[in-house]
Amino acid sequence: MALFEMITAAVQLTPVEQDHLDQARQMQAMSFAVHIPLTCFGVAFPAIILFVEWLHLRTGDPLYRRLARRWSRIMVALFAVGVVTGTILSFELGILWPGFMGAFGDVFGLGFAIEGFAFFLEAIFIGIYVYGWDRMSPKWHFASGIPIVLTGILGAAMVIAVNGWMNHPGGFDLVNGEVTNVKPWTALFGNTFFWHELVHMYVAAYIVVGFVLAGAYAWGKLRGRWGRYERTALAIPLTIACVAAPVQLLVGDWAAREVASHQPVKLAALEGLQDTTKGAPEHILGWYDKDTGEIEWGISIPKLLSFLSYHDPNATVRGLTSVPPDDRPGPINTIRFAFQTMVGIGTGLAALAALVLFFRWRKKRLPESVWFDRALVLAGPAAIVALISGWIVTEVGRQPWVVYGVMRTNEAVTGAGGVPVGYALLAVVYAGLLAALAWILLRLSRTPLGDDAEVLH
């Protein structure tokens, strides 16, 4: 109730100035950058843990039970931090963006209500699962983990539905500036962006979690910790990530074509395309010069943008000048670099995945090279960078709109002062929170394997 009351009070504030719009956007961006990787672990990690426990039930091998049990402790730590960061995000929506919440809360509020319900169920079953290892039969314990997977997926789906609606709004009528005839189900699940964002994020979750886990054990291998337990703990998440990484290239193509159809100006920002062009080129790297409207120092590939966006090398792509300057996304270079970082890392991870799958298929083993281990160590952080870059593309590319084509971000922001102070304080909170998480994970990594350590090695 306290959270609801604070949000209600916040939406009653009338924004009078936007002196701190940039700080509010940066504050929200910082919260997303911290929370979104944790969301990946909330979506994919329980399913991976449950898969490992299923391997134990099928084979009777104690290694799998020990691995699932240790990973469940990590799941609890990450969930606890995710609770804190998710709560902060809830406060920020009401405090920083009262115009948005006040005008459209009836439209997307159902999504957040379902997300909250899913969160509480997830917390309950995580408690049952973690404390039920030695208190429940193996099959019932496995069954208690299924709701964790389902509620994690459901909660994330609701947030993605709201974001999809912000990019492709519908399910309401706007009469004299007032939102009427609200249809929440249509708004959440009838928007075109929901489906590709949903699949894109879920596949990304398995890529991030898989490569982060594999990278952690590859780091241990480089430091001399390498037995049967470590080999298994590396191979399972790595294989999952390597199956997901090539799939993400196809999903990314789908997402890009949806953006081209429904947000053509965002597409122009991704490339830095100044004028509407038939057979538009794609530039690799380079710097967008806002004075000339040209890409400097980039490698131009003729007609590639048209082909990737519409599967037609001669298709016409709208440029930035097709809309007034105030309606253009920005900063352009931020969007371009984030997009190219996402695509570049995604392509690199797909190439690494292809190498792994080739070795598993032809030689029935992983590559045996110190350079491969080093690549795995880098793959985890790189996957997180690609994930955050993708959300930068989505959110910054939608600017200057908070609800695309309906409400501008400067109409949604609070008029209250003190945003820079809150921004600085939140940075300190997050730094402390991440330091505490790192300490907890380090302690867990040093926990002995248990009485069956010899079996596991």
From TrEMBL:
<keyword id="KW-1003">Cell membrane</keyword>
<keyword id="KW-0408">Iron</keyword>
<feature type="transmembrane region" description="Helical">
    <location>
        <begin position="142"/>
        <end position="166"/>
    </location>
</feature>
<feature type="transmembrane region" description="Helical">
    <location>
        <begin position="337"/>
        <end position="359"/>
    </location>
</feature>
<feature type="transmembrane region" description="Helical">
    <location>
        <begin position="232"/>
        <end position="251"/>
    </location>
</feature>
<keyword id="KW-1133">Transmembrane helix</keyword>
<keyword id="KW-0812">Transmembrane</keyword>
<protein>
    <submittedName>
        <fullName>Cytochrome ubiquinol oxidase subunit I</fullName>
    </submittedName>
</protein>
<feature type="transmembrane region" description="Helical">
    <location>
        <begin position="76"/>
        <end position="97"/>
    </location>
</feature>
<keyword id="KW-0349">Heme</keyword>
<comment type="similarity">
    <text>Belongs to the cytochrome ubiquinol oxidase subunit 1 family.</text>
</comment>
<dbReference type="InterPro" id="IPR002585">
    <property type="entry name" value="Cyt-d_ubiquinol_oxidase_su_1"/>
</dbReference>
<keyword id="KW-0472">Membrane</keyword>
<feature type="transmembrane region" description="Helical">
    <location>
        <begin position="199"/>
        <end position="220"/>
    </location>
</feature>
<feature type="transmembrane region" description="Helical">
    <location>
        <begin position="421"/>
        <end position="442"/>
    </location>
</feature>
<keyword id="KW-0813">Transport</keyword>
<feature type="transmembrane region" description="Helical">
    <location>
        <begin position="371"/>
        <end position="393"/>
    </location>
</feature>
<dbReference type="Pfam" id="PF01654">
    <property type="entry name" value="Cyt_bd_oxida_I"/>
</dbReference>
<feature type="transmembrane region" description="Helical">
    <location>
        <begin position="109"/>
        <end position="130"/>
    </location>
</feature>
<feature type="transmembrane region" description="Helical">
    <location>
        <begin position="32"/>
        <end position="55"/>
    </location>
</feature>
<keyword id="KW-0479">Metal-binding</keyword>
<keyword id="KW-0249">Electron transport</keyword>
